[in-house]
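Reviewers asked in the last cycle whether our approach scales beyond single polypeptides. To address this, we selected a multi-component target totalling 289 residues and predicted its structure end to end. The input consisted of the following lines:
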Amino acid sequence: MNSEIKYKINKDKCINCGLCVDICLVYEKISSKVDTIHPNLCIECGHCESVCPVNAIEGPEEVKMICEDEQIPTYESLQFLLQTRRSIRRYKSEPISDIDLQKMLEAGRYAPTGSNEQNIKYVVINSHEKMQELSEIALPVVFKTFKVAKKIASLPFAGKILGKKQAYRLKNIYGPAITIFEERNKQGEDRLFYNAPGLMVVHGEKQDEALAFSCHIAMHNCVLIAQTLGIGCLLNSFALMAINQSKVLRKKLGIPKENKCFGAMTFGYKNINYKKHVNRKPVNVNIIE
Ligand SMILES: Cc1cc2nc3c(=O)[nH]c(=O)nc-3n(C[C@H](O)[C@H](O)[C@H](O)COP(=O)(O)O)c2cc1C
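The resulting structure, written as structure tokens, was:
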């Protein structure tokens, strides 16, 4: 048996009910006795310990939260949170408190990750001055990318390169929007970070598809908890693009070259209140029964 496995069955307590066998491949029931058969498959998700009705599986952590169904938010309160979340582009200038920042990061910490790898790396800027320094480096990168994009969109065979729909969008929607974006920034507006005092970036190993997925989930966990704290967030693909394209920015943020940023968002205490829910298109779903 792999001595590294962190979850042990206490045979004195185990009632051989097999619940751990149902939820995890590490355990098997042989001659009506449950045992640890494939310890090398353990990803330390803790499901075995959580499910055991008699606390016979002992894990590495001493403090455990007892989960009672009635403690989880109701459907209505969670749906309300989801429905009232908006992208926030107006922030108070002061950075968020350390306690609130920790709360946001805790929300990310409890996000699921592929194979329970818990391999998301965070970088957080929580200072207006530092954000301004970053903006000075990021803006020229964004402008340069836009310039290239606009050039491609104006080519007669742009549709072949980008696909018809994307070429149309770039020419007729993004192109003009980019022009306004550039003008407004030149006039002193910050259309990139929107004067946010904070930026959160999630990154990890470049080739890891599952990690990209995990990063998106974790970042959105942070967004939702932020909302309960009066903190507004803006998932920010312009910032993401600039960071992934600029060695200088990546160095400034301490992101190694073998890593990729999978998500970026600006945040700060919000300085705007949306009074109305937003409408969305009907869900485009194919339910197969
Ligand atoms: C992946 C992603 C990237 C986004 N990037 C930007 C961005 O770079 N700049 C921006 O102003 N808004 C950005 N947004 C915000 C969207 O425009 C916004 O979510 C959408 O218009 C719906 O509005 P709501 O979030 O307030 O409901 C982004 C949103 C998502 C999900």
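The chain has three domains: 8-58, 77-128+192-269, 138-184. We regard this as preliminary and will revisit it once experimental data from Aim 1 are available.
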